[in-house]
Specification:
With 171 residues, the protein is an alpha+beta fold. It folds into 2 domains: 4-75, Winged helix-like DNA-binding domain superfamily/Winged helix DNA-binding domain (Arc Repressor Mutant, subunit A, Orthogonal Bundle), CATH 1.10.10.10; 77-157, Lrp/AsnC effector binding domain/regulation of amino acid metabolism (RAM) domain (Alpha-Beta Plaits), CATH 3.30.70.920. 30% of the residues lie in helices and 27% in strands. The protein has 5 helices and 6 strands; from the N terminus they run βαααββαββαβ. A hairpin with a 6-residue loop joins strand 4 and strand 5 (123-129). Helix 2 crosses helix 3. The longest helix is centred in the middle third of the chain and has 13 residues, at 52-64.
């Protein structure tokens, strides 16, 4: 059976003009939705003691202000045959090559995250492989063949112990 969970991703971006535009009602809405994105607006409205229209308007405002970054389904990779979760630290010849490398990485569907980082690696990617053979092909046949990639270091995740959204503090 395909395990699917609906998650509302809520991140406050620095480009959101000012934190004072997110008031306590917005924070309460975010807190409720980040715990259960499927909750009907009428239930959110009841919990917040406001109208359903007010909730709809607030959520729309939070989406337009890029506070709510979207919602979607998280599919369990194991249900699709991807049993190996891996983090790969990538060292580039020059940090300025990052954008070109990202363009190449976007064509590898097994890569689900990519970050430009500080520390020993120029970038870090998270990917899923069906098995060790596919992982080796992804590393040796794709990642390490990208111009500018000089080294990779692979860390295999044995278990994901925590996955959650950042908590929303309501005053």
């Amino acid at each position: 059976m395909l395990f699917v969970s609906l998650i509302l991703r809520t991140f406050v971006l620095t480009k959101y003009k000012s934190m004072d535009k997110i008031d306590n009602l917005d924070k309460k809405i975010l807190s409720i939705l980040s715990k259960n994105a499927r909750i009907p607006f009428k239930d959110v409205a009841a919990e917040c003691n406001v109208s359903r229209a007010a909730i709809h308007q607030r959520v729309q405002h939070l989406i337009e202000g890029e506070v709510i970054m979207g919602s979607g389904f998280d599919v369990n990779p194991k249900s699709l045959g991807y049993s190996t979760c891996t983090y790969v630290g990538i060292t580039l010849e020059r940090g300025s090559m990052y954008r070109n490398v990202v363009e190449r990485l976007q064509h590898i569907p097994e890569i689900v995250e990519c970050h430009f980082t500080t520390g020993p690696y120029t970038m870090m990617v998270k990917l899923y492989a069906r098995d060790n053979e596919q992982l080796m092909e992804l590393l040796n046949g794709q990642l390490q063949d990208i111009p500018g990639v000089v080294a990779t270091e692979t860390l295999i995740s044995l278990e994901q112990s925590i996955k959650r959204e950042i908590p929303v503090q309501v005053d």
